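#struct-pred

JT: dropping the chains for the assembly here, can someone run the whole complex?
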Amino acid sequence: MDILRKRLGMWTRLLGPLAAVLASCPAVLAANRMSVSQELDAEYSYVGGAATRGAGANIGDVDENSADVKYVISPQITKNLLLRFGAEWQRFSFGVPDHAPVPDTLQQASVALGFDYQLADQWLVRAEVQPGVYSDFRELRWDDVDAPLILGGAYLANDDLQWFLGLRVDARSQYPVLPAIGVRWKFKDEWTLNLQPPKPRLEYDVNDNLQFYFGVGLEAGTFRVGEHFGRNRGQPKLDNEVVDFTEVRIGPGCSWKIAPYLTVEAEVGYMPYRDFDFFDPTISFRSHNAPYGQITCHARF
Amino acid sequence: MVGLGWGFVTAVSATAQGPVETVKNFSDFAQIDLSQLPGGDVLVARDALMNFPNGISGQTCFAVPQPAEDTAKRLQTWDPSLHSDLKVYAFRPLHVPCELTDFQQLDFGSGQYPVRWLLDKTLASSAAKSELNLTRDEVNELAACVQKRRDPQAVGRCWANLLFARASKFQQQGSVGVLPYQMNGETVSPAVQLHAILLEQARVAGEFAPFLKKIGLLGNEAATTSLAPFYYWTFFDADHHGTLSLGAVYLLAVGDHYQLADFEYYVSGNYYTSLTLYEVWPIQVGGKPGALVWRGDYFAAPTLAFTKGTERIAYGALMMQDIKREIRCFRDDLKARR
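RK: done, full complex below.
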């Protein structure tokens, strides 16, 4: 009970200032109808059967369906500060044979809490924590709850060149702190080298509304599998373990701005590498070489 | 060196007490440290939240080592096309009354992407559809004109006719003569757009009210000014899109300082209109006559209605970067006496 009280006290301390900020929102929002923005991103993809091996076993061909929906609402509190409140659901479903020691589902249901802030004339920063359930959703327990933190900074050199720095902090992952660097460089009127993780691309603007690109996509996450996951599959060491999931996709695509607030992207390509890494114990299952197709929708309003 | 520095700062501060307080009163700058400005600093204040969905604004403040009167006159007629990084292809003054030959240097033949973009949009314009800021009559005239000959030189001549007609009307009637654009069934008036922005800039509008009323940009009355503005046309790259615009820069002496208003009364596309206001005060810079310049930029653009949240903050920050670059070029020209 003491621990519970302490935690409650901690949350009260954390939420106190947030509550004060939220309490001020209605006044700010009432005074300004431009001060709320919303983002909705949805993605569906299918990866064909990919030969999968690991722990001395041949799992066979594993295909994948994945979906991701994220919604964020951002009230602008001052001219330099936006808060971010949202929710995300992401699911990877794998077509694995019965009793194979590879999860058939990895899923995330989380909320997003954070802020964007203009730190200086040319610097924007973002901090977002995404507490939620990250697991195979078989036997939901408190162990499945995680709260990765995303920190990012953008340096706006000019209209055509921007630099990005990022940091993903996830205490459960084998790599709890993952740094990233990126750049967006419009080096010719039609061409942009948009090397922003996790989806770096080379982009070609056909016109104001249509763009072709060639890019790399990184799907990744850290999830906990069920208490009986391993023993049901002849690998008791994998019970209740954490798996780092990583998948790389390479391919061309096109982006169509249907309306000023709505963009749809379609892409096909090749998945050269997928890894289910149970890093403790060190057992991993890797998939290679499969085609994929993906459709994405971004709405800003 | 320390003694020299103190002497410099004191000289600046003592004589500039009035201008600093005045600028602080009507602007977004709560603090102005004059000792930093002669070193080349440009103070920047991005826009506050605006109700008007198409509007964005920003303020800057800087010093130049030239007397206020000279600075104001140079601001009125400054030619940005001498600086390649400002991406201005052409900047030309207009006669009063303007002549068709004023536009003869309008060139669509450079082959640069932004120029080709405007060429393509012009050729694609028809009575049924156009992405450019035009009246229905102008679309029809432009479509008929480019129908005869579609080469860059001919398209340039078609645009010259259109700009000549608009500039002539503005010279005769002022902002009352600015024809609204008719786009996708909507009528967009540059003057109304600016009016909506200025309504939200109470302190700035208050500071410039008599001047803006005189030139017909504030209030419902027609311009009553005897001020002779500097008229110009310009062709430049706005976000990788070729853009033509017509503008007028008004200058008014108000006691010991100067006010300027650069009004883009016609823009071919990408945005609807802009207004740049300046207030130029005499100060001492390093013991010599100098000028403290406050500048406010006000833009109306259709894309802003869909640029929200972080994207809008980034948009504003990048806009201020562009304005700072322009100010540095202006100061370089003053130093070089170009």
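JT: nice. Chain B has nine helices and ten strands. The interface with chain A takes residues 44, 46-51, 53, 112-114, 239-240, 303, 305-306, 308-314, 317-318, 320-322, 325 of chain B (CB under 8 Å).
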